[in-house]
C-alpha cells in the first residue's frame, strides 16, 4: 500500500533529521525562540558531523510543550523544572510498570514452586 510505504520512509521519533529552520517551522516557533530554548537547556539537539543542529520528532514534541507553557505565562526557568519533573515522572511510571511485570512473574514462579513443594511433600509422606 502507498501509505505503508510512506510510513516506512518517515524517520522514527528519536531520529534527529530536521534542520533548525524546518524544526522551528514544524513546531510553530521562531528560529530565535528555538535557540533561546537551547540556551536555557530546555532542548538539546543532536549535532551532525559538521556541527549542524539536528532535531527529532521527540524534540519537536518537546518544543511544542515548551511553547504551550510559555504561552500560559510560565517563565523558562520554571518550564525547565516542569519538564524535568514530567520526564522524571514518566521514567518512574515506566520503572513501576517494569517492576509490576517482574513482580507478577515472581508471583507466578512462587506459586509454581509452592505447588511443586506440596507435590513432593505428599509423595514423601508415609502411606497408611
Automatic annotation (TrEMBL):
Residues 92-123 form a coiled coil. Gene3D superfamilies: 1.10.1660.10. It comes from the Bacteria. Residues 17-85 form the HTH merR-type domain. InterPro entries: DNA-bd_dom_put_sf, MerR-type_HTH_dom, MerR_fam. GO terms for molecular function: DNA binding; DNA-binding transcription factor activity. Pfam families: MerR_1 (PF13411). This is MerR family transcriptional regulator. Keywords: Coiled coil, DNA-binding. Signal peptide: none annotated.
